[in-house]
Amino acid sequence: MTRSRFLALAASTFLVVGMAACAPPEKSDSGNQTGSGVNAREATSAEDFGGMDALVEAAKAEGELNVIALPPDWANYGEIINAFSEKYGIKVNSAQPDANSQDEINAANQQKGRSTAPDVFDLGQAIALANTAMFAPYKVATFDEIPEQFKDPDGTWVNDYGGYMSIGYDSAKVPEITGVNDLLKPEFAGKVALNGDPTTASAAANGVLMAAISNGGSVDDIAPGVDFFRRLNDAGNFLPVDPTPATIEAGQTPVVIDWDYLNSAQTATIPTWKVFVPSDALVGGYYFQAINKDGPHPAAARLWQEFLYSDEGQNLYLKGMARPVRAEAMADAGTVDRAAFDALPAVDGAPIIPTDEQSTKNAEFLGANWASAVS
């Protein structure tokens, strides 16, 4: 749950590289020809392999997939990875689970040409859109069911899952929370944690945006959000600890500002844990999925995408309390996991939808002002 991410695209209605420097070089492209004669690195759909069965065969021949920055307790990625591996008999190498988006890009650049380089990315908005030249366009079989605002027209990147900013809290340790400014009360002394550093982490940055909107700011003015955390820190309520399931269960971080799917997951183990999503500051976000065009396992990377955007993969995100990008289409088709869908936290209000320009501007403001606010 401590995965550190940069700003993500807002929702609608719904590695530090530690790999060995002596890693073996990547295999040549000579073994990456598809059944139809197309190089696997250039395949833009399963049809380029000769169909889904041929893609599966090519991916199994590669035998491995490298992922990075996917904590098992984040959006149910632990189960997603296991399900993919068991279904196709492909070994998944998961590197640096708690790395951030920039670490993913750094790993791809530093490990380029090696068998340890990441095959796929799961990125926040600012980092994703700044590095699209590194991505391989690919359209999954369900591409047409993904709303246009959540994908690049050529499939260079596609949003995969998202949620809303929330405040999770142990109701046995703190009073009921009905608004963001409740956190300034004396009862919350030393109890309020933010998931990450907002200069590098999506959850934290969007938490500041949520606070800004609750205090008269907007997506174009997050200064009130930084000021809120300054006041929270001055009051002694801000707890500079990155929350994890372990810190929550131990009572070390009884109040956590984070995505609703991460906070909601705690209700399974802590009966008194509640999740509040402010209707007056409904801030949402999706992450970006992309293929590393220079990854060592191009067929497995494409099969991974097909799995993530299939009904099975999307329902596994949903099981982790994340809101899959195909949720609406699946609900219409009757293929959504209805029990999991109905278990999502209730939200009310108009969602906040920052543009890329707004997100970039906010990131710059946080970079210049955050440290002094909470030091």
UniProtKB/TrEMBL annotation:
Family matches, as SUPFAM superfamilies: Periplasmic binding protein-like II
Alphabetized PROSITE patterns for the sequence: PROKAR_LIPOPROTEIN (PS51257)
UniProtKB keywords: Signal
Keyword Nucleus tagged: no
Molecular-function GO term, any one: thiamine binding
Entry GO CC: outer membrane-bounded periplasmic space
Secretion signal, residue range per the UniProt entry: 1-23
One Gene Ontology biological process: thiamine transport
Record PANTHER family: ABC TRANSPORTER SUBSTRATE-BINDING PROTEIN, THIAMINE-BINDING PERIPLASMIC PROTEIN-RELATED
Protein's UniProt name: Putative spermidine/putrescine transport system substrate-binding protein
